[in-house]
């Protein structure tokens, strides 16, 4: 049951889509290596072989997938040549940023599932992306003038609106809600009770964690309750169209006006990624002259 109506950040959504494309390319490569003698489907006894599927994939996607493979191999060679390493803590930090921008672990996991990826696939692609970023740092320059201009043109997006961080337990009726509150009063753990009793399948396995959100992202009754609470407080049952919620407020952030100094690193990162999208294709064309690339795809 969907309790939240979150507005996803475009940057995170786009990056997960890009990483998912890399994952899909890898999956197609796996399909291209199939045993051509096996069968993949049968219609009224008429069989379709893996060889037929292989040939169709090559005809439709072979050139693009091959180019992706060539690009990836050249990037790997450049990373090795430059002796670039990506520390585990950098990968973890980047993953945590995605979780935060998606509004918590539960929402992030759902986004991954929608893209057809698991956590290991995502982390592997994050590592590759960070290594490529390090390669591009020598080629891309971001000036103070560019950053100030971007801040001026996009000032609204750097304003900090009032936000809260909360967890909840969703149950069907008030009696069940009162029972949960009774257990909390007896000292039972909120997260454990959420995992056991909450009907919100999206958050229950994460102890009811809803992450951080602002006004306008929850149904009205839920929003009014959570924004009136004090940090650490657990609410009485809150009725919404989804059922009855027991809410725990874990944190609160006050609204804050846009400040250039505070936004500089985010602006630098945004401009860098924008320039990187243009720079990588040009760079690949340059290094292609260094490597002996020969295309031998047989259609």
Automatic annotation (TrEMBL):
Molecular function terms, GO-annotated: peptidyl-prolyl cis-trans isomerase activity
Keyword tRNA processing annotated: no
Localization, UniProt: Cell membrane
Enzymatic class: isomerase
Coiled-coil ranges (or none): none
Boundaries of every PpiC domain copy: 161-251
A single GO cellular-component term on record: plasma membrane
An annotated GO BP: protein folding
InterPro entries: Foldase_PrsA, PPIase_dom_sf, PPIase_PpiC, PPIase_PpiC_CS, PrsA_foldase, Trigger_fact/SurA_dom_sf
Alphabetic keyword roster: Cell membrane, Isomerase, Lipoprotein, Membrane, Palmitate, Rotamase, Signal, Transmembrane, Transmembrane helix
Topology of this chain in the membrane: Lipid-anchor
Catalytic activity: [protein]-peptidylproline (omega=180) = [protein]-peptidylproline (omega=0)
Transmembrane segments: 12-34
EC number: 5.2.1.8
Main location: membrane
Family indicated by similarity: Belongs to the PrsA family.
PANTHER family xrefs: PEPTIDYL-PROLYL CIS-TRANS ISOMERASE HP_0175-RELATED (PTHR47245:SF2), PEPTIDYLPROLYL ISOMERASE (PTHR47245)
Primary role: Plays a major role in protein secretion by helping the post-translocational extracellular folding of several secreted proteins.
Protein name according to UniProt: Foldase protein PrsA
Species this chain originates from: Siminovitchia acidinfaciens
Taxonomy of the source species: Bacteria, Bacillati, Bacillota, Bacilli, Bacillales
């Amino acid at each position: 049951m969907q309790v939240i109506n979150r507005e996803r950040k475009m940057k995170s959504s786009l990056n997960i889509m890009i990483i998912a494309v890399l994952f899909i390319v890898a999956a197609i490569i796996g399909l291209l290596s199939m045993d051509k003698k096996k069968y993949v489907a049968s219609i009224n006894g008429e069989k379709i072989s893996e060889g037929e599927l292989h040939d169709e994939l090559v005809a439709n996607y072979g050139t693009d997938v091959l180019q992706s493979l060539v690009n990836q191999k050249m990037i790997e060679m450049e990373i090795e040549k430059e002796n670039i390493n990506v520390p585990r803590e950098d990968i973890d930090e980047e993953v945590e940023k995605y979780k935060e921008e998606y509004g918590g672990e539960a929402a992030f996991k759902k986004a991954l599932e929608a893209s057809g990826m698991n956590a290991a696939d995502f982390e592997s692609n994050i590592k590759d992306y960070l290594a490529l970023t390090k390669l591009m740092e020598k080629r891309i320059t971001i000036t103070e003038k560019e950053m100030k201009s971007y801040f001026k043109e996009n000032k609204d997006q750097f304003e900090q609106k009032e936000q809260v961080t909360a967890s909840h337990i969703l149950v069907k009726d008030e009696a069940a809600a009162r029972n949960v509150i009774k257990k909390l009063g007896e000292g039972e753990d909120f997260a454990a009770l959420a995992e056991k009793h909450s009907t919100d399948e999206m958050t229950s396995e994460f102890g009811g964690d809803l992450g951080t959100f602002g006004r306008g992202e929850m149904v009205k009754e839920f929003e009014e309750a959570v924004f009136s609470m004090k940090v650490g407080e657990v609410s009485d049952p809150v009725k919404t169209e989804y059922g009855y919620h027991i809410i725990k407020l874990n944190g609160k952030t006050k609204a804050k006006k846009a400040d250039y100094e505070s936004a500089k690193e985010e602006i630098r990162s945004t401009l860098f990624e924008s320039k990187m999208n243009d720079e990588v294709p040009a760079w690949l064309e340059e290094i292609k002259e260094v490597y002996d690339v020969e295309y031998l795809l047989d259609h």
